Each structure stands twice: as structure tokens, then as C-alpha cells.
Amino acid sequence: MAPKSLCLLVATALLAYYVYVPLPESLEDRWRVMLIDATIRTLGHLAGLAEWLGVMHYMDVLKLMSVAEYVPPTSDENVTVTETEFVSVPVRLYVPRERPGGLKRGLVYFHGGGWCIGEAGEALGSAYDYLSRQTSNDLNAVVVSVNYRLAPQHHFPAQFEDVYAVTKFFLRRSVLAQYGVDPARVAVAGDSAGGNLAAAVAQQVRGLSS
Ligand SMILES: *[C@@H]1O[C@H](CO)[C@@H](O)[C@H](O)[C@H]1NC(C)=O
């Protein structure tokens, strides 16, 4: 065998070994999941290398993923999407189209990413933009997706302070009225680190009213 084809064979085998992860047969799009997983793993390795070389902080490399996945706010026939600030914290707002029959629901959403990465406007892997848009349309809810400050530039409790400040602001009667939201039907939600923030905010807000 020619050295070139031998190299190609070995490289292909190594690539397949790197990408392949055993997944249950029943899972849809197994190869897509493997490719996304391999991409994230690669980014992790590059981030480790960059930090080891002293070029960039590990998390700053991972943050590039949010930058690459960012989509500008785009409205469709169901939901009006805008970016604004609530009490100086950037938020992405999803307002469902007007429907007959009273007030809307409200949802304050906190993305995940280990308090270090993530962005409300991410569209591919994390798909926060898609998730918020669907939630807004399906639940007839005004969704406030919060771009809270991230570590390591901003340490705890900056993340909590931001999401709590936004939630308190949104819960003001005048603000809820402006968006046509029923004060009795507002929720907080999040995934991963955002789930932790949602739990913390829920506990603090409860303390406010009692
Ligand atoms: C708008 O909402 C309808 C009903 O939920 C849905 O069928 C349609 O796909 C939505 N349009 C977009 C662009 O998401």
C-alpha cells in the first residue's frame, strides 16, 4: 500500500474513533448528535491548548461559540423579537402577536452555560432563540430572555444580581400592564446554570411578597 493511502486510512480511522460515541439506536439523528458532540469536544481541546499556551482564557475560547451562533433579533408572523435593556441589563424580548381573549402570560428566561457562556440570541447548538420564540408563540407569553453578566470577567453574585433585577423590574405592575401580561401568570425558567438562577430568583421573589 502506498504511504499516502496508508496515512489516509489511519487518519480516517482516527477521525471515526474520535467522532463515534455509542448512542441508543432509538435516538433520532444519531450522527448529528455525534458531530455536535465532537465539535464541542474539539473546541474544549482547543480552549485547553489556548489556555495552556497562555493565549486566551479557556472560557473566552468557549465564548466564541456564542458569538458564532448569534443571530440578530428577527420577528416573524407570530412573534415580535427585539433587544433592549431592563434596568441596564440586556434582554431579548419575544412578544406574541395580539390574540383575542385577555392578558398574556409572562416568562423570564435564563440561559445555561455554567455562568460563563451562553447568549439569548444563540441559534444553533443551544438554540435559545428558537426555544424562546416557540415558547412565546405556543404559550402566548411575553418571554424576557436575559443576557446577564458572565464569569470569569464578572464573579458571583453578578449573574444573580442581573437576573433578579430584571425579574423585579418585569414584575412591576406598570411594566406588566405595558406588555399586557397577567400578573398572576408570570414564571421564571432556565436550563442548567439558568435553572439554578431561576430557583434562586423564585426563592428571593417569594421572600419579597411575604
Ligand atoms: C406561526 O404559528 C403557527 C401556529 O402555531 C405555526 O403553524 C407557524 O409555523 C408559525 N410560524 C413561524 C414562522 O414559526
Look at the helices and sheets and give the structural class: alpha/beta
- The percentage of residues in β strands lies in 15-25%
Number of helices: 7
* CATH architectural category of the largest domain: 3-Layer(aba) Sandwich
Helix content: 40-55%
The beta-strand count equals: 5
Q: Quick one: CATH superfamily of the largest domain?
A: Alpha/Beta hydrolase fold, catalytic domain
Averaged pLDDT = 94
Lateral strand order in the biggest sheet: 1-2-4-3-5
CATH topology of the largest domain: Rossmann fold
In the residues, how many domains can be counted? Answer: 2
Bound molecules: 2-acetamido-2-deoxy-beta-D-glucopyranose
The Rg value, from CA coordinates, equals 21 Å
Q: What spatial form do the alpha-carbon principal axes imply?
A: elongated
CATH first level of the largest domain = Alpha Beta
Observed structural traits:
48% helix, binds 2-acetamido-2-deoxy-beta-D-glucopyranose, 210 residues, Rossmann fold
Structure description:
This is Arylacetamide deacetylase. Keywords: Hydrolase. With 210 residues, the chain is α/β, with parallel strands linked by helices. The chain has helices at residues 3-19, 30-52, 58-69, 128-139, 158-170, 173-179, 193-209, and strands at residues 79-86, 89-96, 104-110, 141-146, 181-190. It has 7 helices and 5 strands; from the N terminus they run αααβββαβααβα. The protein has a 5-stranded mixed β-sheet with strand order 1-2-4-3-5, sandwiched between helices. β3 (104-110), α4 (128-139) and β4 (141-146) form a beta-alpha-beta unit. The longest helix has 23 residues, at 30-52. The termini are far apart. The mean pLDDT is 94. 2-acetamido-2-deoxy-beta-D-glucopyranose binds at residues 76-78, 137.
